[in-house]
Amino acid sequence: GDECVERAFGDEWIQIRECVTDGDEYFAKQKDKVSSLAPPLRYTPWIVIERKHSKASEVHLTRAVCDSFESKWKPWACYAPPPALPKPTVEIHYEPLNTESQSFIVAQLNHLKTHVDEIITLDIVPFGRTVKNSDNTFQCPNDEECHTFKHHACVITLFMESKPVETLNFLVCVFGSDMTNVPKVTENCANEYFTDPWVDIDTCAKSKGDQILQTYAERVENLNPKLSHIPWILVNGEHDLEAEDNLIQEICEIFYATDKPSQCIPELITVSVNYQNMETSVANFVANQLKPYHPYFEELAALDFVPFGLTQRDGTGFKCPQNEVQCNANKVHACVFHNFWDKLDHSNAMDLDESRYRTLGFLVCVFAKNSANPIADAEQCIEQEIGDYWADLINPCATGPDGITLYEELAKKTDVLNPKISKVPWVTIDNTYKIEAETNFVHSICDSYPLVKPPVCSSIGKILVNIGLYYSSDETTRNWVINELKPLYAESTPTRAAPRLQTILSSLFIPWGQTIYNEADAENPFTCPKENECLANRIHACAIDQYLDKPRGVLHITEFIICFYSEQTWSTNPAEAGNVCANKVWVLEAWPQIVSCATINTPDNINTYLKMKQKTDLAKPTKLPWITINNVQNSNAETKLLETVCDNYSGLRPDNCPTIGPTAEPTLPTGVTGGPTDLPTTPPTADTPLPTLPPTQPETSPPTSPPTSPPTPPNPTDPSPTPTTDGALTIAMS
């Protein structure tokens, strides 16, 4: 620092040093600048152009600045041709008989195949965790003689460069078919997308298959970090874990914002929230669904707030469910959104971010008060969140003809809703009513996008819940792992519609328990309450030490421990259970290292287990297993782990989490049917479990004609659903 400042500023260095040693005043000014940002700073670098946060500047600052000049007269430097951005290189390592590879190919590459030449340079390697034997033969996962691996290798070698679209069509065809007869499926798909190629492919596999696999083996061996799971994806030469869940999103982020190909630009979907003042249900919605995320909504969707709710026309005027004050407060909100959200009265478009952010702040402020005097609440919140606009702008608007005109416009928006509004809040996404949005608003919005979503959908979902398990390998721990942890991960089946439970968890396993360290006994340094307990603990500790820091290390350690306690020999022969599970999770090279660490008492191996003692001593558990959630002991997690994890998660909630909000189990209003749900993008396999169905109700015949009049809407202030005559909800499925 000294050297660079002296080189840049010369004699002025003395002044700078004086400023550094006594510069609190200057630093406070910087703090004030950061504190005044709206939306608030969420990461660095945070670049603002003309008071508007500029995400594009992070990729190409010069062009973002030039784009910010509203007229055609720009600095000369802005007219220089932009530098060409190279297409990203994507390298995909997969296995032809692997279910995760199947899910990835069908869900991700299928979307890219017609654009692959335009936007990426694609390299596909069908090798994965194949092991090269000492006699230069290969041992392929689930394919003893590597026939399928060689067929895939030959298809890619023969056709990927000259026929990339057909090659991807072949892969999608194979992985989207019934995999019970793999050779036949491979042949049929090859003949479908290439001209009589099967003889050439089969001949290549028999004559050159080993040679091609040898080339792949060298490439996989040189990967850094080492390949540890499938699919394994590199973008521009760097391993990219995020690409495994959304390759298209990762590819699109490499392109500059204004230069993205069309398939990388999500068009913001339209979201409408119809509500009214003085309602507890709306206050809960704002507190639970809007407040935690309100800095993000400008980037998330095209939001429209309609403060009309269940207002009814009354002659030439309007009548609100509670009283006239409720209607007047709704008009105040209409005027606020008209002036500060819709931008009809603002000439400077660069204020858009800040204005909408502050308007949402106003909404959060009002419903945090939610008093019997909503107009006084609104006046205070306008002053607090937006500025001094009440007397000269908002109050004259709400009490004058402008308020009536705006309210009439809101009435027209509400009249066209289908189905008709019957409670508040009432949320529509792309003009479709979404009851689930009332209790999981952000998720529902992100879920409504296809594969390419706004970047904020990814960033909101990266918050983690940390589970800590301090334990020893005894029956109590085994029961907790099988009854609580295993079902939680079993619920985490991949889905492109929402984050998996796996992605929000970070598990910490500390196997020590009541172990006694016998420092003077070199042959038997550890003693545990039961036979084999120390060995099982040390196997876990060695696996954790060797693999926790690897890619997907937390997930793989969790899978290993669940597998371990699922084996019948876990207590009688821990080495056998460890061997089976290490080979399942990490394939062949893992177990010899783990068992050596767990059974040979070298100083390093002993220290590996002693690390668990140090962590246990810091936690000071009073019982075993000792379970922590976000580093705090949590008794609820002993019997209700799923609910506890979901309750402690503040990000984008996965589908697997129980519904939250003012109503624990939301139900459809009378006369309203649910819209279609997304079908899974991954084809079912032999391992795909069937959903568990509830007991069936007696079958009834559907009505032959629609009702002549709409059903009576339920009382919006009554949270209970309207039951059928037998007390059960009727569900129609087609």
UniProtKB/TrEMBL annotation:
The keyword Signal applies. Residues 666-690 have a biased composition (Low complexity). Residues 657-734 are annotated as: Disordered. Coiled coil: none annotated. Its main location: secreted. Transmembrane segments: none annotated. Keywords: Glycoprotein, Secreted, Signal. This is Uncharacterized protein. It comes from Medioppia subpectinata. The lineage of its organism: Eukaryota, Metazoa, Ecdysozoa, Arthropoda, Chelicerata.
